[in-house]
Design goal:
Blueprint: H1 3-9, E1 14-16, H2 17-22, E2 39-42, E3 45-47, H3 55-66, E4 71-73, H4 74-80, E5 90-94, E6 104-108, E7 115-118, E8 121-124, H5 126-134, H6 140-152, H7 158-167, H8 173-199, E9 206-207, E10 210-212, E11 218-220, E12 224-226, E13 231-235, H9 238-241, H10 244-259, E14 263-267, H11 269-274, H12 276-291, E15 299-301
Parallel strand pairs: 5-6, 13-14
Antiparallel strand pairs: 1-3, 2-3, 4-5, 7-8, 9-12, 10-11, 10-15, 12-13
Helix pairs in contact: 4-5, 5-6, 5-7, 6-8
Length: 304
């Protein structure tokens, strides 16, 4: 049997041992011995060269070992979605009971979740991939970084991740804790901001109101609004809101504020927590500066 025929039947040089035998090679494993021209990737799976496999060949071999209906999840799927996931294992979800080995994890599920073609491979949704990847992490920092990257890059939303973690609860305590902390961080930051605003005894702020200009066009919805002088206060979380798209939205928001004559103070939640006196001083100074110029023609509006 000519090697060209084998390569034609292979996928990226990956082929099953059964297919090799059907093409006339009675003992493919002899060619996979040390110094041989081929190599054994998994039980029943052969790579038709003895050099280092590419990531695509590794994944192709894993899917061939897993059998029909297998889909890619976990760290490998995250990377296919463009996320910087750690972990060298290949995690596949399968409908059958075939076993993995080495870096190959085969998890039997029923039903197998939907998958989309990503670069020629069946890959689960980003939310499912992130949740499954976090199931194999032990570090909260690593899980937080992966969740933040998925949200920042717009691959999925916190609600997508929370829904996936609810459906597949086994081993998801870490990712659920990260998502809970995300929600808690935002609520704690607002709580701290309200406490600080009361303590510094500025005129009572309005919280999360919508602002419009004299022409009725919506300008923004600041976290806090000092209506007496036209001062906005935004609590901007760098960890979860400073992805590329969010950064662009923040710049656009600040440009609208500037065009309307609104002064804005931006505060990180960590600074509000760790150095509240400095934040208080900045707010007082900004309030004095806002009071020293004519108040802009901005008003609070109700949005249905």
């Amino acid at each position: 049997m000519r090697i060209e025929h084998l390569r034609e039947r292979s996928d990226l040089g990956v082929i099953s041992a059964g297919a090799v035998k059907s093409l006339g090679v009675s003992n493919p494993w002899r060619r996979c011995a040390a110094g041989g021209p081929w190599q054994r990737m998994y039980p029943g799976v052969v790579l038709l060269h003895n050099g280092p496999p590419t990531p695509e060949q590794h994944l192709t071999a894993a899917l061939l070992r897993a059998g029909p209906g297998a889909v890619v999840t976990g760290a490998e799927a995250c990377r296919r979605h463009g996320l910087p996931a750690r972990g060298q294992e290949i995690h596949l979800l399968v409908p059958g009971s075939v076993r993995g080995s080495g870096r190959l994890i085969l998890e039997r599920v029923c039903p197998v979740p939907p998958a989309a073609d990503v670069g020629g491979f069946p890959v689960v949704s980003c939310a499912r991939a992130v949740v499954d990847a976090c199931r194999r992490l032990r570090s909260a920092d690593e899980a937080t970084a992966l969740v933040a990257a998925a949200i920042q890059k717009g691959r999925c939303s916190p609600s997508d991740l929370a829904a996936e973690a609810r459906v597949n609860r086994y081993g998801t305590a870490l990712v659920r804790a990260v998502l809970e902390e995300l929600g808690r961080a935002e609520s704690v930051a607002e709580r701290d901001a309200r406490r600080l605003s009361r303590r510094i005894r500025l005129p009572t702020a309005h919280w999360n109101v919508t602002l419009a200009g004299a022409d009725g066009v919506i300008i923004g919805r600041p976290d806090a609004w000092y209506d007496d002088v036209g001062l906005a206060w935004e609590i901007d979380s760098r960890a979860f809101h400073y992805g590329p798209r969010d950064y662009e939205r923040t710049l656009a928001r600040n440009s609208r504020y500037a065009a309307a004559g609104i002064l804005v103070v931006q505060t990180l939640p960590t600074r509000l927590r760790d150095n509240p006196e400095a934040v208080a001083a900045e707010l007082r100074k900004a309030h004095r500066a806002a009071a020293a110029r004519p108040r802009p023609p901005v008003r609070i509006v109700e949005v249905s």
